[in-house]
Amino acid sequence: MKKGIRKILAVSLAALMTLSLAACSGSGETTADTTADTTAAETGSETAADEGTEAKSADGLKVGLILSGPISDMSWNYTAYQGLLKIEEQGAEIFYQENVQPADTADQFRTYSTAGINLVFVSSDSYQDVVMEEAPNYPDMQFIIINGSVNEGNVCSVQVSDEQQGFMMGVIAATASKNGSVGFVGGQEITPIINGSKGFEQGAKYVNEDINVTITMTGSMTDTAAAKEQSIALADAGCDVVVPMADNASLGVLEGAEDQAIYSVGTGEGQETSGPNSMLAAVNKDTAVAYLAAFEQYLNDELPTDETVPKYGAAEGVVTLGPWQACADELLTDEQKQSVQDIYDKLAAGEIEISID
Asked: How many CA atoms lie less than 13 Å away from 55 in the CB half-sphere?
């Protein structure tokens, strides 16, 4: 294990025997080139910095990450981990814990505080309530909630555009559907997944206003079997293209599509291994971009302090289209593929609005 992880275990073991921190080791290449071009100035939010404020150095900083699932999910938690690795490249010492339940988060904060962590990322708004309750107890730690909605005290939020990812998955699904019926399988029924489902329906109807859209939720981001069952049920109901938005459980949706000989759209590169004959393409959501941008805002004392929460999507390189897979080459014409690309380009240019109200 990495030196920093041994340190945090040593100082926390007496107080918290049941928690352990994962070793920091690379898990493959990032899903997209990560840049730091997006700043607080580009999002238009107010910042805590006065002009001319000297930036912090990343050297010597300790940055922790709390993850809702495994870094091997080829989706949400994987790209979060890639963002942490990008932060390590800036000179910070990094720590992370996978599969943390909200009920266990307060204990993890105590562990991080004992280890001297300066900045804590929490990977989901499912942690927001416990963060707001616990953050005042740790005034020397900065908390950043991914997909949160609060900027208060030592807590701020950064959002990624789940609705844009859902929209483009809907576009691909409707373009490929022959039955005029497509389905969405979400995991935990939280705001990001709900927003993704709304985007999916709007994207499908952008292509075909008469298409039948079915939205289902399993209630879990890790229950692969339940997601697969929902995928099979959608196929039985006549859907010929299904899409997931359920982190690690997304793989079950692709497996169900494979078993039922229908098509699917993935949420991360590498997921085609779970649906080699069914996955048309992936609409990737590279949250690493948002993590690195937020870290640089932290270094520059530019984290948002007002009610404005920056959101990163296609324009910032967070939501991207992955390569077409072999089954797409058999199913879709070049004109259809170009149509999908054209719609994506309009989305990135701000020419398409998605309603999540």
From this structure: 11
